[in-house]
Structures are given as C-alpha cells and as structure tokens.
Amino acid sequence: MTQPAIPERLRAAIAANFAAQTSFLADIVRFPSLRGNEAPLQDFLARQMAARGWRVDRFSLADVPLEGHPKASPMVDVDPAGSIQVVGTLRARDGAAGEGMIHGRGRSLIMQGHIDVVPEGPTAMWSHPPYAAHIQDGWLYGRGAHDMKSGVSAMFFAMDALKAAGLRPCADIHVQTVTEEESTGNGALATLLRGYRADAALIPEPTGGTITRAHTGTLWFRLRVAGVPVHVAVAQTGSNAIMSAYQLIQALYAHTAEANKAAAQHPWYKGIEAPIKFNPGIIRGGDWASSTPAWCEVDCRIGLLPGQDVAVVQKAVEAAVAAAARADHFMANNPPELTWHGFLADGYVLEPGSEAEAVLAAAHSSAFGGEMPARITTAVNDTRFYGLYFGIPGLCYGPKGEGAHAFDERTHLEHLQTTTLAMASFIADWCGVEEA
Predict the structure, then answer these.
(1) Do the two domains 6-215+347-435 and 217-345 of this chain adopt the same fold?
(2) Which of 63, 81, 160, 387 has minimal Cβ neighbours within 10 Å of its Cβ?
(3) Phi-psi bin for 173: left (phi > 0), alpha (psi -120 to 50), beta?
(4) Which are the contacts of 59, defined by CB distance < 8 A and separation ≥ 6?
C-alpha cells in the first residue's frame, strides 16, 4: 500500500498530537521562569528531551568562556552559574544523508527558543492568573505563553510529528532552550561557545507566521544620581535626586528624537516611525517622603539600528547624559554614574535570498496556503548571534499571539497548530528524512 505524501503524514501526526502539545505548553507556562529562576523549567525540559531519546547537554553560563567573547553582555544582577541552558541533540543515522533519504537535502539545523519570561506585574490586572495557563475561546493565556513558550512547544512537537509520521531526519538537529534572551542574549551565545553549529538556525519567536527581516539592537544602562537630603520644609536648601534623574530622562528622550531623525535614512527602517525606542523601565530612589531623596537609580533601555556600532551608540548616550548633567548646578559638581548592566546587542538583517528562507517559505505556504510575509521589528531577538557572528542563517519565524510583556498575554492555539506543521515541513525539507 502506498504511503501518503509527507505533508499529509505530518498534518495527521500534528493533529493527533495537538492535545498533548497544548498540555505540554500549559505545563511549561505554569513554571514562573523569571530571570534567575529558570532552572526548574530547564530541568523539566531536559527530562522531556531525554524521554524522546535525544542526547541532553545541561550546562550553565559559568561553564563557557562568556567573559572573553566581545559580544557577551554584562550580567550585573544575576549569577551566571545559576543560569541553565539545555541542548537536546538528535543525530542522523550514519550514511542517512545518502542512500536512505526519501525527501529533502540533508542539512543540519538548530532550533532555539528562550524560556525566560519578564515579570508579570500586578496580578490583579490580569483577567486570569498569569501562571494558570487558562484556555478560553481558542487562546491559551499566561506569562510567556506568547513570548515564547508557544514556539518552544512547536519545536518539540514538530520533532514529535516526524517520529509519529514514521520519519527520521537525515541530518543532525539541536533543540535548544536558553535563558537571558530578555536581558542579555548570553544564553544563545553560550550554546555557540559550547560548540553547537548547524547549516541554519530557526528561532520560533511569536511572529504571527511572518519571517523577521530585520531587528533593532538593544542597550541596557543604569543611571545613579546623588542628592542632598534635607527636611522637605527647607527643600530649597537640598537637592532632589529623583528630580535630577527626571532631567536626565528628559534629555535622553530628546537624544532619542534626534537619533530617529537620522533613522529616516536607514535602508530597512526608513519607513518605520521612530524605530529607535528609549524607555526608563525601573526607578528606585529616596528613603523618606518628607526628606529630599539622597539617591535615585533608573534602569533604561535604548535601541539602535542594524549597522550601527554598539560602542558608538554607547558613547552618544554617555555624552547626552554628561551634557544634561553639566547644565544642572548640582549635577555639574556631582556627576551621575552610568553603568552598562545588560544588553549590548547589535541589530540584524536577514538579507533576502538565502536558501534556508526559501525552504521555510515553501513550508509556510504548504501549511498556511499563502505567501510568507516579512516583518521589520523594533525589538531584539537571538538571530543576531547566528547570522552576524557565526555565519549561520538566522530565521525568526513562529506562531501568533498577543500581549508580549503585557497583561493577559496569550497565544492562538489554532495558529500554533498550523505553525507546528510549517516547522515540521521545514525540518523535513531542510534536513531530509528517511523512513524510520
């Protein structure tokens, strides 16, 4: 009896397994894998990989030479030894890329997803508890469900679909779950420093079925401002560190506005309104409501465009802060401190025309029945490590959802199922398959 065509076999396998995939996604959303607390989820995923027969490598950021790499970012607030990475490898059968292949080309692949999530904020402002993995009207809700645990589930279950369809990849595949994507990117870099390489890398961030053509870079920095504490009754005799920090924030917004004027000439971002984003994201300061605050800290994020040099953008930020301080009588004599404490990330462009993108576009078309659109984003992702520094095409493509870093974050389950099919088809075409 003739076997059904491979796309039909994969579609049937994914449909049959989708209840299990949804349950798996709910399980991993229930882990509050905030920065510094990712290890329990990573241990769960390592067990899942081992149960599938993959070779498992579990290691920490302290186990690789991050400090010696020029593209590593500083980790000021977390212990690298507690930041766990996991890689599950399925090796091709010896000779599989030759006589046994029935479909595809036999090229190796990395699939990588981050499992760290951002803080959930006030839980009272969620419609459902943020780690309950609530399902309603075809959506699964929860912190990380959209960004990007849905994509992580797709990596696992695309591989499961191949096995359930009676197929085995004809090239090595590394399935990686990493940390630090939301703060430094050091998790992705660590897997490369560990020695993992492939002919392409697929990162299923929640792109809504689009390919990410370009992403901006990101810098994190911390401002610390001093003040002179006095009783508020004589506030004019002291100095308010919070208000001094506010002046610096205003100066940085003005600096960003000027940077965005220049961005209007960028080949990929000239059609994007204000693509360089500045955000004062955390503020701490003062000791007493009736005293002028003696200190204030502000954690900030600013973007940069592909092709801009990180060091040049850093110097421009430092110059903007220094100029604002010189214009203030107190700060001119008590300069603020500026510390780079996280992302030092380049932007990246996936240039059109790569064979890996063409294979993914065909897989998307087969699954969704239409052309794969491209998007340009003003956020960062991990593809830069593969494409810019290691010569590996970095494809950022994944399922649809809403609410990244917001309340009521959610992923669309039907779209996730179809995306998993597209990913399984891509694996079959890119890596080649043989009958198991």
Answers:
(1) no
(2) 81
(3) beta
(4) 84, 85, 190, 194
The beta strand positions in 346-408, using DSSP E, are 348-349, 374-377, 394-396, 401-402
Contact 392, 197 (CB under 8 A): yes
Nearest Cα to Cα of residue 25 among 112, 150, 157: 150
Reading the chain (436 residues) residue by residue, the pLDDT tens digits are 446 799 999 999 999 999 999 999 999 999 999 999 999 999 999 999 999 999 999 999 999 999 989 999 999 989 999 999 999 999 998 765 556 777 878 999 999 999 999 999 999 999 999 999 999 999 999 999 999 999 999 999 999 999 999 999 999 999 999 999 999 999 999 999 999 999 999 999 999 999 999 999 999 999 999 999 999 999 999 999 999 999 999 999 999 999 999 999 999 999 999 999 999 999 999 999 999 999 999 999 999 999 999 999 999 999 999 999 999 999 999 999 999 999 999 999 999 999 999 999 999 999 999 999 999 999 999 999 999 999 999 999 999 999 999 999 999 999 999 999 999 999 999 999 999 8
Q: Please give the Cα distance from 151 to 113 (Å, whole number).
A: 7
pLDDT tens profile 316-330:
999 999 999 999 999
Under CATH, what is the fold of the domain 6-215+347-435?
Answer: Aminopeptidase (3.40.630)
Angle at 23 (CA atoms; ends 22, 24), nearest 5 degrees:
90
Q: Residue 385 is encoded by which pair of tokens?
A: 């490590």
First to last CA, the chain: 17
* Cα distance between residue 88 and residue 160, in whole Å: 13
Other beta carbons less than 10 A from residue 124's beta carbon: 6
Q: Which of 431, 399, 414 is nearest to 162 (CA)?
A: 431
Which secondary structure element, helix H or strand E, spans residue 150, and what is its range?
Answer: helix 150-164
Rounded to an integer, what distance in angstroms lies between the CA atom of residue 131 and that of residue 34?
A: 11
- CATH label, 217-345, candidates 3.40.50.300, 3.30.70.360, 3.20.20.70, 3.40.50.2000: 3.30.70.360
Alpha-carbon gap, residue 330 to 108, rounded angstroms: 59
